[in-house]
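Bit of a strange request maybe. I'm writing a small parser for structure token strings and I need a real example to test against, not something I typed by hand. Could someone generate the tokens for this chain?
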Amino acid sequence: MKNNSPRLLRLAALVFVMLLTGSVHAQGRWLKLAPFPEPNEELIGAAAGGKMYVFGGYDAGKPKGIVYEYDPASDAWTKKKPMALPAHHMAIVEHGGKLYVFGGFVLSTQGPSAWVPIGTVWQYDPATDNWKALAAMPTPRGASAAGVVGDKIYVIGGAANAPGESGLRGGAAQQVLGTVEEYDIAKDEWRSRSPMLVPRNHAGAGVVNNKIIVAGGRIGAAWITMASNTDVVEEYDPAADRWSALRARMPTARSGGAAVVWNGRLLYAGGEFQDSRMMAAFRALEAYDPVTNAWTLMPSMPLPRHGVAGAVIGNRLHLVSGDLQSAGSGHDMHTDAHDVFEFGSGGK
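Reply from user aminoacidic:
Good idea to test on real output. This should exercise your parser:
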């Protein structure tokens, strides 16, 4: 009798590959669109009025304060007025067609090795290309996360000076925050809310069903050279001012990536990692569904990077620029890549 085992094994392998490929294509596909005009890192992105806006940038400790607008209709970038106060590691949200930028770090007078956390808050109006100062945060900080629910914005976590320190610098103690502060847009006022269970900075956040999901980030310090990534996921209910028990952990512990919301899920793209053996940037794109409390692995980004700007416009996730390596290598590896994931029928 003829042995058909090798043939059956090859057939089974082919079927598996076809099923896997079909699943990936059903989730969506990657596209390349207009490259970013000023490649950099520590950029943040947001969508407003059907366009994407990219803010920030970082050069040897100095914040660049660049602002660009991307129009998907023409696949073109336009440079706008710079940030009113250049900073890096800000948090950003959109509300009512305007963009709100919170905190960040500025360059210390003591040199580029020291970051000074700030509490400034700015409203950027894309229609007029103008900046407006708002009431400052009670807690100056950078590398925080933010989410908007109703007419209130919540700034969560971040990093600040340790007591007695004038700035964040290498080898010095840093304060990692679980702090949550609520900004009332109509009243231009702040109040404190319940802190996160796990203090951290460089986390990703998004709002789904009027609750804020916070994923990943760093514990121990703001600088990746002094910190440990975490895979912890928490969910905050602003109406009850309550944090849930810890949710399903991220498949990949990381920090410094881009977090967005699409179709009821939080998506986390890119990020960085360091330990005594290696330094790296991630290609991973992972999606969290709070209804099922489960993560899904999406097709990986074409390029690994951290400090990448992200935003969703329609059924497309835009990921712009960033650094191809983890921070502190001494060699900038900024990319002008504008990679776009177009969600398919199986994207949910």
